[in-house]
Design brief:
This protein is α/β, with parallel strands linked by helices and about 350 residues long. It has 14 helices and ten strands. Helix 1 crosses helix 14. It starts with a helix and ends with a helix. Its EC number is 1.5.5.2.
C-alpha cells in the first residue's frame, strides 16, 4: 500500500509542489541525484570512473508538453555526449522517449532521437559509438518504445537499446524480440504504478520473472545489463554465469547512484562490470518518489521533516506500514485523491 501511494504521488502536481518546496526534500534528492547541472553530473561520473565504475548519465525529465521543451532536451543530451567524449569518460547516456516529445508527435520524437544517435555515432570516431539507451516508462509506452528501437535498428542506428521490466506480463515476449534484434537490454523489476491486468501484483512473481528473463538474456549473449540491488538475485546471477561458463565481460550489473555503494564496489573488486545510473537536472521529483517507493524506509527521515515544515503533520499521522510512517501531508493527500 505504501509503495502504491508513493507511486501515485509521483504523478500528483499538488504533492510535487509540497515536496519540492521543502529543503529536506532537496537534501534527500541529492542522495539519488548528482545535481542540477551537467558539470555536477560530470564530476560524479569522474569520481565513479576513478573507482572503477562505469556510468550511464540521465538528464531528468519526462512527458514534455511542448516541442520547445523536447528540443531543449535534445540539445542537452547532445551536450552530454560531447562532454563525455571531451573528458574521456567511461559513460553512456539514457533518455526517455517522452522527454523527446513522444506524446506530442511520434515522428518529431524519432527525429530528435535520431539526431542524438547520429551525434553519438560521430563522436565514436572509430573507437566505438557512444551507446544511447531508451529508458522504459510506464506500460502505456512499452510497445511504442520497443517498436521504436526495432525501427531505429532497421535504419542502421544500432548504438541503441532499451529497458524491460520484469513486473510486466508481456516482458518475456519483448525479451525475445530484443534478442532476435540483437539489441542490448537493461533488465529491471519496474518502478511504475500498473494495473494487475498488465503487471504482476506480487513481488514474488516479479522476482521470479526477473530471474527467468535474466537467464535468457545471459544465455543470448547480447551484453545485457542486470539492474538490481537485490543481493539474492545478484548471487543467483553470479552462480549462473559460473555454472554456464559465461564470461564476466559479457554482461554488466547496473545500480542506482547513491544506492548500495558498498555492493557496487564489492562486485567491481570481484571482476564484474558495474555501471552506475547517474541522473541529474532540476526535474527530480518523479524520480525521487519512484526511488522512495522502491525503498520506503527512506521515508522515515523525510516524512517528519516535510510534515513539520509544512505545518500540517497531523493530517496523515496514523499511516504506518512496515515500521515506517508516510509524511502526514503526503499520506492524507494520497488518501483523499484515491478515495
Amino acid at each position: 500500500m505504501l509503495k502504491q501511494s508513493l507511486l501515485y504521488l509521483s504523478q500528483s502536481p499538488t504533492a510535487k509542489r509540497m515536496v519540492t518546496g521543502t529543503p529536506v526534500s532537496r537534501q534527500m534528492a541529492r542522495r539519488f541525484v548528482a545535481g542540477d547541472t551537467l558539470d555536477e553530473a560530470l564530476a560524479a561520473a569522474r569520481a565513479l570512473n576513478d573507482a572503477g565504475l562505469s556510468v550511464s548519465l540521465d538528464y531528468l525529465g519526462e512527458a514534455v508538453e511542448s516541442r520547445e521543451e523536447a528540443e531543449a532536451a535534445t540539445d542537452m543530451v547532445i551536450r552530454i555526449l560531447e562532454a563525455l567524449k571531451r573528458d574521456g569518460l567511461d559513460a553512456n547516456v539514457s533518455v526517455k522517449p517522452t522527454q523527446f516529445g513522444l506524446d506530442l508527435d511520434p515522428d518529431f520524437c524519432r527525429r530528435g532521437i535520431e539526431m542524438v544517435l547520429q551525434r553519438a555515432r560521430e563522436l565514436g570516431d572509430g573507437e566505438g559509438e557512444i551507446f544511447v539507451r531508451l529508458d522504459m516508462e510506464s506500460s502505456d509506452y512499452t510497445e511504442r518504445t520497443v517498436a521504436l528501437v526495432e525501427s531505429l535498428w532497421a535504419d542502421g542506428f544500432q548504438n541503441t537499446g532499451t529497458v524491460l521490466q520484469s513486473m510486466l506480463r508481456r516482458t518475456p515476449d519483448d525479451v525475445e524480440r530484443m534478442i532476435r534484434l540483437g539489441a542490448r537490454v537493461r533488465l529491471v523489476k519496474g518502478a511504475y504504478l500498473e494495473p494487475e491486468t498488465v503487471a504482476y501484483p506480487d513481488k514474488a512473481d516479479t522476482d521470479r520473472m526477473f530471474v527467468e528473463e535474466m537467464e535468457r538474456l545471459l544465455d543470448a549473449g547480447k551484453y545485457p545489463a542486470i539492474a538490481t540491488h537485490d543481493e539474492a538475485i545478484i548471487d543467483h546471477a553470479r552462480r549462473y554465469v559460473w555454472e554456464k561458463g559465461i564470461a564476466k565481460e559479457s554482461f554488466e550489473f547496473q545500480m542506482l547512484y547513491g544506492v548500495r555503494r558498498d555492493l557496487q564496489t564489492r562486485l567491481r573488486e570481484e571482476g564484474y562490470n558495474v555501471r552506475v545510473y547517474v541522473p541529474f537536472g532540476e526535474s527530480w521529483y518523479p524520480y525521487l518518489m519512484r526511488r522512495l517507493a522502491e525503498r520506503p524506509a527512506n521515508m522515515m527521515f523525510m516524512a517528519g521533516s516535510i510534515a513539520k515544515e509544512s505545518g500540517i503533520g497531523g493530517l496523515g499521522r496514523p499511516l504506518a506500514i512496515g515500521g515506517g510512517m508516510v509524511a502526514g501531508a503526503l499520506a492524507a493527500l494520497a488518501w483523499r485523491r484515491r478515495r
